[in-house]
Design goal:
Length: 250
C-alpha cells in the first residue's frame, strides 16, 4: 500500500486520499484478499478465530491481460547504440537469453556454470537475492558467445548486477525508450523477452524447445502435461545451438 517514498508511514486515510479515487487493479484486489485470507486461516489454526470471515469473499472485477509488444530489430539497434552504463549490459543479456528482468538482475556469480566444451551456462534458480516465478522457471540457459566477453565487466563475486532490481531496470528502460524515440504502445523491458522468442520462431526453433529456454510451458501443445511427464527435455547441446541462432541486429 503506497510504494512511493512520499507515502511511507502514512495512515490509511492518507493513502485513500492520495489515491484520488482510483481503484486498484483486479489482480491487486485478488492478491490483497488472498493475503488477508491466509492470515485469517493462520488465526483460525492458532485458535484465535473460530472461522475465517474472508472465506467467502470474492473479487468480481476481471483482469485485463497486459499486452506487450516485441521489440523490432530497428528499436533494438537504437537502444543498443545508447550504450547505457546502468542497464546496457543487462539489457544485452536479456536480449540474448530471453530472461526476465528479475531473473537477470538477481543473478550471482555462482549461478554461472562452466560446462567444458559447451561453454558458460546460466543456472536460473532461487538464490539469496530472489525467488522464481514458477517451477518451470528453474532452468539452464547457455550464455551466448556474443555476451561471453562482457563477463570481464561484471563482478567476480556476489551479485553480477549490484544495485539493480526490477523496479530500477524498468524505470531506466522507460528513459532509454524515450531517448531512442520509441513511442509504440506496449514496448516495455519485457519486450526483450518477446524479441528473443520471436527470433527463435523465425529461426524455425520448435515452440516447446524455446519454452524450455525461456521457462514457459508450451501453450500450443494440447498434451503438454503428458509431454512434460515423459520427456527429459532437450540436451545442453541443443540449447546451445538454439541460443546461438539468435543474433543481435547490426
Amino acid at each position: 500500500m503506497g510504494k512511493s517514498y512520499r507515502l511511507k508511514g502514512a495512515s490509511l486515510d492518507r493513502l485513500v486520499a492520495a489515491s484520488e479515487g482510483q481503484t486498484i487493479s483486479a489482480a491487486t484486489q485478488r492478491r490483497t484478499v488472498g493475503q488477508v485470507s491466509h492470515f485469517l486461516d493462520w488465526a483460525v489454526y492458532e485458535g484465535q478465530l473460530t472461522s475465517n470471515p474472508f472465506a467467502t469473499v470474492r473479487v468480481e472485477a476481471k483482469s485485463k491481460p497486459r499486452h506487450y509488444e516485441a521489440l523490432s530489430d530497428g528499436e533494438v539497434t537504437r537502444l543498443l547504440a545508447l550504450k547505457d552504463g546502468k542497464i546496457g549490459v543487462l539489457f544485452t543479456l536479456c536480449l540474448l537469453t530471453g530472461m526476465r528482468a528479475g531473473e537477470a538482475s538477481g543473478l550471482v556469480w555462482s549461478d554461472l556454470v562452466w560446462k567444458e566444451n559447451l561453454g558458460w551456462f546460466i543456472w536460473i534458480r532461487p538464490n539469496e537475492v530472489r525467488s522464481l516465478k514458477t517451477e518451470a522457471a528453474e532452468r539452464f540457459i547457455p550464455l551466448h558467445s556474443a555476451f561471453a566477453p562482457m563477463l570481464d565487466r561484471l563482478p567476480k563475486d556476489g551479485r553480477l548486477f549490484p544495485g539493480l532490481s526490477v523496479n530500477t531496470v524498468t524505470k531506466r528502460f522507460a528513459i532509454l525508450r524515450e531517448w531512442a524515440g520509441i513511442t509504440r504502445q506496449g514496448v516495455v523491458f519485457h519486450s526483450t523477452r518477446k524479441w528473443f522468442v520471436t527470433q527463435c520462431e523465425r529461426a524455425g526453433v520448435p515452440e516447446h524447445f524455446t519454452a524450455s529456454i525461456v521457462g514457459h510451458q508450451s501453450a500450443r501443445s494440447e498434451n503438454r502435461m503428458t509431454y512434460g511427464i515423459y520427456s527429459a527435455g532437450i540436451s545442453d547441446e541443443q540449447k546451445r545451438e538454439i541460443v546461438e541462432k539468435v543474433g543481435l541486429p547490426t
